[in-house]
Structures are given as structure tokens and as C-alpha cells.
Design goal:
mainly alpha, single chain, Cytochrome Bc1 Complex, Chain D, domain 2, 8 helices
């Protein structure tokens, strides 16, 4: 490589560093949650998020079956801890959750895109700078598998099934895949 080309590449990196530091120290990036992320920022966050979760969850082994009572307990935990931001079939998230950036996904649709191990990892570890807390420090593994199995089943639940899902262990809707089998 010619010295001129090498100098040009180094110059571009130095310029990019100066621009980046100017944005950071100048407060030029708007961090207000009232503004949507720019397309590039959203793509960067979404891609990093998806790949990070897939990478970290690939060594997690889901239980062969999750007992219906555990899924019912997962439904109860979901309704008390997750529904506020994510909603559920027939239940909207709290109004204030629409002001979060990124917006919490409506899991009645989004859960279909994730494996149960990934949902477990997300519930256990949370997500930085998203408002998604880590429930692993405050909930045992068994409870988190119940939540993961319940969330994995959300896309198949009707609002009526969802409303009945945490009443008692025997009332776990048959549409919840974790009720007897953690894997689809």
C-alpha cells in the first residue's frame, strides 16, 4: 500500500474520532425519549441486540417440560412485572410505556420471533439502556422458565385465555406451549 493511501486512511480515522468526540462532548446527540431514534441508530441497536441475545443464549438448555403450575406462576409473574410495559392479548401496556425508547415490544406478537432460551436469557439478564430490568437477581431459575414458557405461548393466546392464565394451575390454557413441553 502506498504511503499516501495509508496516510489518507489514518486521516479518515482521526477525522471520524474528532467528529465522534465532538458529538459526545458537545451534547449534539439528542437523548430525549420524546424523539425517535434515527434509522441508523435504531438499526445499530436492533442488530446488536438481536445478535447479542442469540450469541449468549445459544448454550442455554431449556428444560424438556415446564409443569403447568410453573407456567401459571409464570403468567402471574408476567402480569405483575411485564404487562405494564409489554401488554398482553387484549391488554394494552400502560400509557407511560409508550414514552420509552426503544419502545417495549408487544410480546403477544414479538415472542414468536424468539426461542424459549432467548426469552429466558432476556428475562434473566435484562437489556442495558432499554428499561428492561434483569429479573435473574430477584427471581429463581424455575420462575424464569415459567415466565419464558408463558411468554413463548403469548402469540397463540386469545384475550380470554390470557385473562384466565394465572388463576390456578389447572386453568393454564392449552395454547401455552410450556404447559408440558418447553420446546415447540
Amino acid at each position: 500500500m502506498a504511503m499516501g493511501a495509508l496516510a489518507a486512511i489514518v486521516g479518515l480515522f482521526v477525522l471520524a474520532g474528532i467528529v465522534g468526540l465532538s458529538i459526545v462532548y458537545g451534547g449534539l446527540y439528542n437523548v430525549a425519549a420524546t424523539e425517535e431514534h434515527a434509522s441508523f441508530t435504531r438499526w445499530t441497536f436492533d442488530t446488536t441486540f438481536r445478535n447479542s441475545v442469540e450469541n449468549r443464549a445459544e448454550d442455554i438448555l431449556a428444560p424438556e417440560a415446564v409443569a403447568p403450575a410453573l407456567v401459571a406462576r409464570g403468567a402471574e409473574t408476567y402480569k405483575s412485572s411485564c404487562q405494564l410495559c409489554h401488554g398482553g392479548p387484549g391488554v394494552d401496556p400502560e400509557e407511560w410505556a409508550s414514552g420509552m425508547r426503544p419502545r417495549p415490544p408487544h410480546l403477544a406478537e414479538a415472542a414468536a420471533e424468539w426461542e424459549i432460551e432467548e426469552i429466558y436469557w432476556l428475562a434473566s439478564n435484562g437489556v442495558k439502556m432499554s428499561g428492561m430490568p434483569a429479573f435473574g437477581p430477584s427471581h429463581d431459575e424455575e420462575t424464569l422458565w415459567g415466565v419464558a414458557a408463558f411468554v413463548k405461548g403469548l402469540p397463540g393466546l386469545t384475550p380470554e385465555d390470557y385473562a384466565q392464565s394465572a388463576i390456578e394451575p389447572d386453568a393454564v390454557p392449552s395454547g401455552v406451549p410450556g404447559a408440558g413441553s418447553a420446546r415447540e
